[in-house]
Amino acid sequence: MMLASAAGQESLEDASIGTGHGLFTWYLVDGLSGLADAGKADNKITFAEIKNYVEKNVPSVATEKFKRKQDPYLCCNEFSEKVVSNVDPAYLQQWLKEKNNRRGGGNSFNGLTAADYKRFAADTALVETYNRFNRAIRSNNLTGSSSAEDFYQQLEKKYPGNPYTQDAKSTLAAEFINDAQKKVNQYLTCGVISSSKDKQEHAAAGGRIEKAIALLRADEPEFAAALRGRMFLLKANGDYGTASDAFNYAHAARAIDPNGAYILNQLSRLHLENNRPDSAAFYADKAAKAAPKWPCALTTLALAQKALDNKKPDLTNKGKKPSPKLLCKPSFGFTLGAGMNQSNPTYSGNQQTGFTGVNSKSAVGGNAGFLYHICLGPSIAIRPTATVVFESTDIEFERRSTSGAPIIETVSVKGTTISMALPILIRLSSGKIAPYIALGPSFNYMLSQNGTSADQLPVKKSLFMGNGGLGLDISLLKSGWVLSPELKYSAGLNDINSTSSPTVYSAALSSLKKNTFSLNLYLRKR
Fold first, then answer.
1. At residue 417, what are phi and psi to the nearest 5 degrees?
2. What pTM was estimated for this model as a whole?
3. What's the pLDDT score for residue 336?
């Protein structure tokens, strides 16, 4: 079947085409006479050759010479190798000679001349590469060496903008999309994607859609953008060695379609694979509500609910309290806190220093660092913590004036300290918001002391402290993190007043200890 133009177009006819022909008819006869035989040059015209010849010339001549749009339609590709004309070389030469004699003026266009034919024959590399491209498409050889993608890249490099190249570009993009859509359909019909091979195939299909987007972006930006959700879904099915990459692709897809059941379901599956049943149930519920008749969403919801039930307390004997299971695993986290430091000085009674007493005073401090949470049982854990502490400890030294009125001089000891703590945590419940008690020692080592106080009142670098706190473990279900605000009291266990470099200030003290009240926030992965 051969149609002169596409639906809605006019078939161009003009007296200047030969002695008066339709543009489609002219090139059809031209090609069947032998000018379409540009590939094997075997004096046989196949349906593919005449189709390529007509579709290459008619649209470009209609646009360039007549400022009109005409796109012929020839069907169908299954007859591509069928021979539709046998070329008589003598007749072909006569045809070319008569074409030259009929060339007219004005906007006259008579098709290819003999010189044009020579140039066209020299372009057989273009047609041959295009034919190889189509053979690769038919054999579904899309990527790699001697593939459709390889031949298209050759066309793009040597013949950019050529109609053959443009056709190969759109064809390759369509094949990439069709191939990837098969994997999308497998996912939508609840196909099992569990093996490493399956995951690699889905990720590769996502890469092919990404290539299709790059091919289409300039000419079809809206359609190219519409493919991004499918691309991210397929990549979210991949196996990258760590879960973070798959989650990143899944969340990228959700950013495009926040209420898409297909991606909410994939997020649930990823959380199930990573042993996070509460998050899996959260996303599965959303997917089931978004697509209540989609079996995949309902199946995932059932699996997530089952995994969540398996982590509930195990009721083995009726009437007895459940034995909570160990629901946590070792995890890293962060800590941030601030509070009030209070010195606890004792006056030595040495009036030769000029001081008659010492008083405690409060000063602010802050800390930041890392933690490692280790479960020892259903309700007991340890939390080794390493923090950098920025602290200030103020001491008031009192002396009498000649009038008898007290004179107060404050010495502010400021410094940066590394603190290593090892508290034991005792959880008082197993709920989503669980109070706990923290008890344990810490070792502080001062890295630096401000110069003024170092001259007046040098302190010992090392300090042992006892710590006690009351906090809450708050489970953040959507993110899989636990936030723990904690009120903590710390008391110094040893004297930090240094006598190695005696001053009147250190001589006025028999001991110097400190204590701290602080609010700390601990954040860790569940």
1. -130, 145
2. 0.41
3. 94
What is the tens place of the pLDDT at every residue in 396-453? 989 888 777 888 899 899 999 999 999 999 988 877 888 999 999 999 999 998 988 8
Distance of CA 215 to the CA centre of its chain: 22
518 vs 341: CA distance, rounded Å: 8
Cα(39)–Cα(160) distance, rounded to whole angstroms? 20
CA-wise closest residue to 427 among 503, 486, 496? 486
Provide the residue count of the chain: 526
Is residue 134 within 8 Å of 52, Cβ to Cβ? no
SS (H, E, C) 139-195: CCCCCCCCCHHHHHHHHHHHCCCCHHHHHHHHHHHHHHHHHHHHHHHHHHCCCCCCC
Type of residue at 501: S
Q: Kindly give, in sequence order, each residue whose CB lies less than 8 Å from that of residue 182, ignoring residues fewer than 6 positions away.
A: 205
Q: Region 451-477: what's the mean pLDDT?
A: 89
Q: What domains appear along the chain, each with residue ranges and CATH number?
A: 2-122 (no CATH), 179-310 (1.25.40.10), 331-525 (2.40.160.20)
Do 16 and 86 contact (CB within 8 A), yes or no?
A: no
Our CA angle for 9, 15, 18, nearest 5°, is 100
Q: Is 161 exposed, middle or buried (0-12, 13-18, 19+ CB in 10 A)?
A: exposed
- Interval 192-208: pLDDT, tens: 677 778 888 888 888 88
